Amino acid sequence: MNKSKENALSSCARRSFIKDSGLMIAGGAIGGAVAVGKAVQGGSTAPIKIAIIGCGRRARELADAVWAIDDEAVQLVGLADYFHSQTQSMYRSLKGRYTGQIAADCVRSGGEDCLSPILESDADIVYVTTPPVDRPDCFQRIVEAGKHAFLEKPLAADAAGVLQTIDTAKQAEAAGLTVHVGFQRRYDNRYQDVIQRVRNGAIGTPIFARAFCNAGSLRPPVHARNESDAEIQRRNWNHYQWTGGDFLIEQHVAGLDVIRWALDQPAFVAQGQGGWGSFDTAEHQSLPTDRSGDVFDHHTVEFEFASGAVLLSQCRRVAKSWNNTSEHVHGTLGRAELSAGKIYSLDGEVVWQSDQPSSLKAATVAQQRAFLQSIRRGTAENQVASAAASTLMAMLGHQATRTGKRIQMVKWINEAKYRMGQATNA
Questions:
Q1: pTM, whole model, 2 decimals?
Q2: Which residue of 43, 235, 378, 393 pairs with 267 in a disulfide if CB–CB is 3.0 to 4.6 A?
Q3: Which of 239, 335, 216 is nearest to 296 (CA)?
Q4: C-alpha 226 chain-centroid distance
């Protein structure tokens, strides 16, 4: 194929992508759709009653953020986790620190159907901090029960789960339910400051970006006595694709969301590579293959955006390596270090630096304040479209590294929809 014909096809494909992928385009703003909301049970001054399903580290961080808001009354009425020991552990932890905010009859459930007692409770909100594989079904049941939802990122472990979540979000919007998703960096003052300047043209037209999520290795899988393979994989969900997606999806999605926010456009295509650079470590050699996990420990992905801008994304979980989590955008007039809140000229001189503070903990509190206020005020917000665009972008990159192919977003999503239809008709 000659170069001019190839460019014409590429341009045509981009136009088709922009026309056909309203989901990704519409998801640019974190606020999402706003509708008349469902009222808090007991009236406008009553405590907002919350429940949590998935009692791990992130659930505890969110609980701490909720009770860091000193001008809002919140009461915990339910906890649930597949592993009942997790439920009990979190209950004891919260009871010891927030005694006055825990209902005397707080539900504590475990097992495969641990969500049902939560849905039967008088909770106004359910926080979903389960492994990603469980989030779409939990969200659907929560909305059907008429409760507001906070979904931790990513929305699901695979594309089918994201598409299910999008459909459920439409039901939530129609019912006036607020749905927030845990992309808390969008509530960070420094990120807001520098990204607004980028979008106002401070670095000219963005043409290239970089995003890093490099950290130490995952902890070795934990095996409890007499557990089945399925239970082991659930307990160690971030080691398996079917439960967690992969850390590119589960963790690096936050940095990809920042780039998508800064560029204000969707990813169009991805290609890349990944693998196991340290999979033969001692802790893995002693484990059966089906119990040691199947996620890569490094991914490098090149994303192309609808405008032609390119993102080079790198994420890695390897011990004794360069650790860095940051995002950068390069333009025709300069570049921006988003995480540092700095803008540089083309010759490398700092021309602007944000004076705003940056803290993931503070941003998490800020998002929880906004989430609770939207419910208290009855102005429902739905963030699923934006979160879906970022989650699908991460999954597009994962698909590229796993297959070694150049993957187009629209074609890949259409194939996922076709497979879902085939499964439904089977």
A1: 0.89
A2: 393
A3: 239
A4: 33
